[in-house]
Amino acid sequence: MRWVRFHSLPDSKRYAEHEGEYQVLLERQHTVLADLGAPPQLVVVTCEWGDQVEPAGRPQELEALAPGTYWRTVSEVDATDPGSQLHTHLYAGIMPNTTVALDPLLRSVADYRTADIIIAPVSLAWLAHPYDGGVDVIARDTAEREALKARHSDWLSRRPDGV
């Protein structure tokens, strides 16, 4: 398994309440990206969901935070209503790996104003999935995952399953 989860704030606190906590959160997110060897340009994938097969377009706020073009739709049966389907519309774009470009998007995710984004190098050698509370990483291999865990052991969950 190559997955590892890092929490954005000390003691697994989920949401930042003031600028000092946002600084910690953003520093941790950027540190993880740097440790992964994030290049100057990153692929950012964002999602929109609905019951329509065709995408209706993204909210302007999300388009401003992570410009992208429609890539594809993934459809699945709605677990709560087996007679209907849910459609996830994926948008992908290239963003510079800078605090100026990424911080507004990472803050939006941290505040749960947007969700389910993927950040990756163009090679897709690894994936980072920021969420409100931290970042999940799918590393290149288990050795990289173990090195990340060792480097940032105080950012890990205390739960045995790593969540």
Give a verbal description of the structure:
There is one protein chain. Helix 1 (19-35) packs across helix 3 (99-110). Helix content is 28%, strand content 33%. The strands form two sheets. A four-stranded antiparallel beta sheet has the order 3-4-2-5, with no helix packed on it. The chain has a three-stranded antiparallel beta sheet with strand order 1-7-6. Strand 6 (127-131) and strand 7 (134-138) form a beta hairpin. It contains four helices and seven strands; from the N terminus they run βαβαββαβββα. The mean pLDDT is 94. It has 163 residues and is an alpha+beta fold.
Give the arrangement of secondary structure elements:
Elements: E1 3-7, H1 19-35, E2 41-50, H2 60-65, E3 69-78, E4 81-96, H3 99-110, E5 118-120, E6 127-131, E7 134-138, H4 142-151
Antiparallel strand pairs: 1-7, 2-4, 2-5, 3-4, 6-7
Helix pairs in contact: 1-3
